[in-house]
Amino acid sequence: MRKMPLKPSPTWLTGVSMKNDSTSDPLSQPQNREVRNEVMYHGIAASSGIAIGIALVVGGTNRSSLDLEPKPITEAEVPAETARLNAALAKTRAQILELQARVKSSLASQEASIFEAHLLIVDDKVLMQEVYDGIRKQLQAADVVFAGIMKRYIAAISAVNDQYLKERAADVADVAYRVLDNLSGESRQLLDHLPGQRILISRDLTPSDTAMLDRENVQAFATETGSRTSHTAILARSMRIPAVVGVTNLAANVHNGDLIIIDGFIGAVITNPKPETLELYAQKEVSKEQLFNQLQQESSLESETIDGYRIHLSANIDDVGDIDDVRKSGAAGIGLFRTEYLFMDKIPTEEEQFEAYRKIVAGADGQGVIIRTLDLGGDKLSAVLQTTPDPNPFLGQRSIRLCLAYPELLMPQLRAILRASAVGPTRLMFPMVTCEDEIDRLKEMLDKARTELRLEKLKFDEHMEVGIMVETPSAALFAEHLARKVDFFSIGTNDLVQYTMAVDRGNEKVATLYRPAHPVILMLINNIVKAADAAGIWVGVCGEMASDPRFIPLLVGLGVQELSMSTGALGAARRVVRSLRMFEAEKFAQDAMKCADHRQVLEMADSLLQRIAPDIVSIAMKGN
């Protein structure tokens, strides 16, 4: 079985209780239940890897509801309840800071920044004033009022049509449960005395739960809720814990002690596997470890096809702390530096941004960095901008639209990026551009920033390339006109698929409709590449399609010149590129666009990958 790397082990898992709880090992007790057949459950592949082991079902009996029984108080008790709430908030804040420090020391600052949002909730004066007022007016205990208000906020956040914001509902719930734990004084369920390695099965795991997992004994986990882009999934990938999320009715159908397989590559959970299934996965487990070691050893090799076509493989990063991983991976620079983390706590100054960008560019050792401007919705910044939250952030004032509406957001960022370009090769990229008018306005602001820096005698690269992300159907179809105004395109396949297929990719109820292999998506990419070729500019892809080995031949065959992905995916991508001939990639792409549906494309993709890079087949993401 897969042995997890030894790291500092937490002593508890926040707010989790065990099914069939016992002070002794429940798995050592006689199990008088019927023989059960092998069942495969399908979910969302959240963190790659395979684990074979014994199930430990953990559930949220104390987290199942925020509907608390009324607890009336008298007016004389209001000050005591307010003080009790303040003490719980202070304790919660200290716990979050401790958790953040622990994550930063064992993982990276990128993962630790997830908990900045938790601190913002605890420190939200408007929210807490609402709780204080509720205690006084309703004459109810602090926990009852707090739970009711948090339930309302969670419901409102969950209802909006914006995946990023929906996933933040889990962060709000995480903080709510922690505060309620501290108000009640209830002890948390200990999971540091596990009787050996276990696979966790749960309805849900919050980011705090995940960050505190004992990586020596937790082999993998599967949950009924969640998405690939949730904070829980992000942490699992960073911790190298295989995970599957969005598995319907899983916890109710798994018992403590069940033998179980987690396949984080294809998003499958197999309970009570047959001997032949066990043997197959045991072989896969060993071969994958060997494969990852081989891929790491190949990190210095050129990423070019057998017939000599160079494909640039670069890295997507969120934080300066990721630079070491970029160097080790053999990436040809940074194809996407996301700047959103700088804005999660407050709006950063120009100097704060410049320092962050300078470190990234310097750390890239001359390989080149593409810095993307702010790609958030106004809903995330409504408090600091003092605006009304957008009723539909997904289609509303987000990304470039927000920055154009609030130049005070964009101008300091443009100046900081320009200044960082003096340190090393830097490109600027605007996200979510849909029309020529937006490009014209953005370039006017960029020219203004350049003029200001010249007057201030601050250095910058006068010839810094400026590109856009193409991630909407309108931009893809209008690419011929957009290409004349920029130096490069980067295709954001995540949003392109989501907007084209009209599907919320993080919603487990419709996840199967998120289909990057659909012929219409390939046609749009083909149109983008042709427009770029005609204008003499280059094209890259920085969405999840770029990191899926099945789709790399497709993208290469369509004419994409750069693929940008997480550092962990670069090894497999390099192996696929080096196993490919350009003429077969081009033929595959042309044939794929003629297919009737996405299933035919996937069958062709699997067949080609099996032929050119059979070792990589086992780690290619399946489905959709």
Q: Got a strand count? A: 17
CATH superfamily of the largest domain: Phosphoenolpyruvate-binding domains
Beta-strand share of residues = 5-15%
Q: What's the mean pLDDT score?
A: 84
Shape: globular
Please state the second-level CATH architecture of the largest domain. Answer: Alpha-Beta Barrel
Structural class: alpha/beta
| Model regions low in confidence, pLDDT < 50 over at least 5 residues | 1-33, 60-64
CATH class of the largest domain: Alpha Beta
- Give the CATH topology of the largest domain: TIM Barrel
* Range of helix content: 40-55%
Number of helices: 24
Outline the biggest β-sheet.
9 strands, mixed
Specify Rg, calculated over alpha carbons. 25 Å
**What number of domains?**
3
- Head-to-tail CA distance between termini: 28 Å
Notable characteristics:
single chain, 624 residues, alpha/beta, Glucose Oxidase, domain 1, Enzyme I, Chain A, domain 2, TIM Barrel, 3 domains, 9-stranded mixed sheet, 8-stranded parallel beta barrel, 24 helices, 17 strands, 13% strand, globular, disordered N terminus
Describe the fold and architecture.
The chain is an alpha/beta fold and 624 residues long. It has 3 domains: 17-62 and 189-274, Glucose Oxidase, domain 1 (3-Layer(bba) Sandwich); 75-184, Orthogonal Bundle (Enzyme I, Chain A, domain 2), CATH 1.10.274.10; 309-617, TIM Barrel (Alpha-Beta Barrel). The chain has 24 helices and 17 strands. The strands form 2 sheets. Strands 1, 2, 3, 4, 5, 6, 7, 8 and 9 form a 9-stranded mixed sheet that branches. It has an 8-stranded parallel barrel with strand order 10-11-12-13-14-15-16-17, surrounded by 4 helices. The longest helix has 29 residues, at 78-106. The radius of gyration is 25 Å and the shape is globular. The two termini are 28 Å apart. The relative contact order is 0.11. Residues 1-33 and 60-64 have low confidence and may be disordered.
